[in-house]
Amino acid sequence: MTKNIKEITEKLEAGVKEVFSSEQFKNYLDFMNSFTDYSINNTILIYMQKPDASLVAGYKSWQKKGRQVRKGEHGIKIIAPRPRQMEVEEDGETKIVVLPLTFHAITVFDVSQTDGAELPEGPVTQLTGDVDGYAGLIGKLEAAAPVPVSYEAFDISANGYYSDAAQQIVIKSGLSELQTVKTLVHEIAHSMLHTGKDTTDRDTREVQAESIAYTVCSMLGLDTSDYSFGYIAGWSSGKDVKELTESIEIIKTTAREILDRIA
Predict the structure, then answer these.
(1) Model confidence over 19-45: pLDDT tens digits?
(2) Is residue 28 part of a domain?
(3) Residue 125 to residue 146: CA distance in whole angstroms
(4) Phi and psi angles of residue 29, each rounded to the nearest 5 degrees, phi first
(5) CA separation for the pair 113, 53 (Å, rounded)
């Protein structure tokens, strides 16, 4: 099994690197890079208030992108720095002195709370197709999950999410069998690795979870490359695929543990 997992992760890394060279992905990154990055503290705040959030921005920022926050939507509170400066007279000259930063609460909204212009799509394709022995496999995966699993209809871009606070995994109902299996493994990986004590940044968490999902599915004879390669590329910080290469051992170990649990 170890040799197979090594071969799969090597294929995964090569596939993700290929995604970076596509014109579609370049356009997608240009758009995404125009949004502000958020600190780890704000990422935690966003997750606590809306664990299914995927892309957040302020009210006016969404308007500039051609999208409007829907009436009645509740914003997500985060902390933003407030630069301060003052003029002082020194030796007959007026100088600007930068004062220590203060911080204040601001409100942002997730893309799922907005309507308007279509966003450029990243290289992620929703998986289709049936899975042999689907019911039995889903039952084994649910039993292997550290927390309860439920299936719900919700109108967000994510196919599922793991809530550490609620200790549950929620999968979007109505997905194809292949997408459901892949998403469930992804969220199981989150529930095994990314609990309250974990300090890994969000990009790395998503790269790890999707890489584990791809690896487990590959070992089960299921091809999720059309989805996983683009998803991982979307969360990677650069063409060196840093988050992936630095997480290879975690990916291998966790994938092996999930496979052992469902054997």
Answers:
(1) 777 766 666 656 655 566 677 678 778
(2) no
(3) 28
(4) -65, -40
(5) 10
Neighbours of 18 (CB within 10 A): 13
Q: How confident is the model at residue 149 (pLDDT cuts 50, 70, 90)?
A: very high
Same domain? 145 vs 167: yes
Residue ending a domain, among 66, 86, 121, is 121
Rounded distance between C-alpha atoms, residue 196 and residue 51, angstroms: 13
Task: Verify that 149 and 226 share a domain, yes or no.
Answer: yes
Look at the chain and report how many structural domains it folds into: 2
More confident position, 250 or 28: 250
Q: Which amino acid is at 203?
A: D
Asked which of 78, 98, 121 is the last residue of a domain, the reply is 121
Q: Is residue 29 part of a domain?
A: no
* Residues 150-179, mean pLDDT to the nearest whole number: 91
**Domain ranges, residue 236:** 1-22+123-263
Distances (CA, A) of 162 to 18, 30, 36, 253: 29, 29, 24, 20
Rounded Cα gap, residues 177 and 180, in angstroms: 5
77 within domain boundaries: yes
Distances (CA, A) of 152 to 49, 127, 169: 19, 18, 10
**pLDDT: which is higher, 255 or 96:** 255
CA distance 208 to 247: 7
For residue 59, the model assigns a pLDDT of: 94
